[in-house]
Structure formats: C-alpha cells, structure tokens
C-alpha cells in the first residue's frame, strides 16, 4: 500500500458496471424472466420476533398519525442510536453524530448532492461500490477515480492513496462476497486521513451481520471527525418493507447534512419512525443471531446439495459468491461484471435468504444427474416463483 501523486485515471469501468445493472433490471421486469439468484429480498422465520408490537398493532395505535413523524427531530432516537453504536463499537458517539433517514438510498442521494453543492467534481473510491452511487456520480458529473487494483479481500489488492485532500468512498463489508475489509486496509486509510485531512464515506449497509458473532465493526475506528458511515437496520433484520437507515457523521457536519436531507426527501412515515426505534431495541437487546443462524443453515443446505462447483468463503451478510455447476445462462444473476471484478468467470451472487434461488439451484442437481438439460424458461416454470428485485 502506497501513496501516489494524482492517482489513477478516472474509471469508465464503474459506469460500464452501471450499464450492466441497467440491462439486468430491464430483463428482470419482463414476463417469464429467469429466476433471479441475486436479488435482495428473502424471507425468514423471525420477522414477528423482530417487529415486536409492530407485527400486530396498527401504527395509528402506537403514535399520532395526524402529525409528521419528525424523524430527525427525535433526539431520543438519535441518542439511542449513538448509545447502541458506542456499545457495539466502543466508539464515543452522541446524538450530534447521527442523521436518521428512511433508507440508505436517500442517504446516498443526500451525500452525493452535498458533494456537488460543495464543489467536489472528483472523488476517489475503492471498488466495488453500490450501483446507485455510480448512477449518482454520473448524474451529477462527478468523476470517480479508483485507488486500488482488485478488491480489499483479495491477495492482489494494491491500495494507492493520493497525496492530496480528497473524498474517498469504500464499501465495508464487500457485500456481494460477504467479506470484511481487512484491518490493515482500514489502518492504512485511517493514517492517510490523518495525514491529508481527507473525508471517507463508508457504505456499511451490510454491517453487523458477522457469521462468527464478533461484535463491532472495524471501520468504526476510522477518525470520527473525518468519516461518514452509513448503517442500515433494515438489512440487519432483513425486513425491507420498512425503510430505516442512519448516517454516522462528524458533529461539525451533522446539521448541514440533516437540513439537506430533509429538504431533499421530506419526512418518513410514522411507521418507519416506530420501526427505527424497534430496530434499536433489537440491536441493543437480543441482536440478529437467529437470522444469521438461518442464513448459515441455508448456506449449508445449498453447499450440501452439490449445486455449486466452487464458492468463496463467507464472513458476513446474506450473499454468497459462487460458481454453479450449470451454465450461467440458466439464471438471471449478477456476475463479476456487476462489481468491477475480474478473474471469476461463472461466479454469481446468490441471495441465501431467497428460497426461490436456493430451490432453483438445487433442482439443477437432479437435472444434471439424469443427463438432461434445463433451459432458463424451464427453471422459471418449475413452480418456483421469480423473486422481485429491490434496492
């Protein structure tokens, strides 16, 4: 890992990656589309446990629905979020470090709008980043410049941070593969922040889902006064019908970002404010260990089925990056092109909470054993519903 001068050239591959996402989304919406292995949705048996009273009580019985939810004005919520992170991460946060919101997508929109309003026409990033960031960079005319070859968990990863004050975007964990950003990479970034005064944005949408049960996130140790970190409790609980996320920010930027956010997106539904409090309850009490155990059980069943020719080890989250025995064309799936990745032909992202995906993959084993072939249409027509995609 080394510092460089002006950094690598701008990344047209990021925008090509966005085009691949747009293509797959267009096919997904067609009638009779192939089973989508890579989507975000997926059920589990702990929804009612995690929702508590929200599982069977209408929001109007729990809050005044004649009033706006006032999410950012809820100082108690912000204080509870800060206390929860202090407990998980051992970092001193206060309500002045928290911008709550209705979902991570709106926070990404606020962040990139803030960059543009403050004259940032160039940002650096560690691949991969979520495709919506690529969309927003393209829409706002912001030039994304990669600072590494490979992805952070790969042995060939080569971090070359610029010798200038800038903005760096990275994703931790590397969600499609369920891998954490290694500690030495984060240590190098933290030292660079202190030297250059650079700002780092961490997309932590899939944080706090470790398979080994280890609490806390290493990226919380980046300098708090120079780091924005996005956390998404809806992913933590895999309950995506509610919209809930928050941004941990330097105290000096909180009010500016909160004002921009409310002016861009307005307030949330009162049900989402109630869910935000419920998510803090779960995170500070019993956690999501049942859900993570369910994900691991699904992983064990899929790998035992014989449907996979190869797979990456998983540390966190509910995605597996693997190569099925059957040809890629049998399914609709996100492959290496969708993550600015090379060297993994035939690998696709599999949602381990998507029963349709797991059943469809398992069904290919019988087909291969019988010597038959199965087309994409046959897989979609086996009584396995095609799972919808959501951002």
From TrEMBL:
Gene Ontology molecular function, alphabetical: pyridoxal phosphate binding; transaminase activity
Occurrences of domain Aminotransferase class I/classII large (ranges): 64-264
Lineage: superkingdom: Bacteria
GO biological process, one term: amino acid metabolic process
Cofactor requirements of the protein: pyridoxal 5'-phosphate
Keywords noted in UniProt: Aminotransferase, Pyridoxal phosphate, Transferase
Protein name stated in the entry: Aminotransferase class I/II-fold pyridoxal phosphate-dependent enzyme
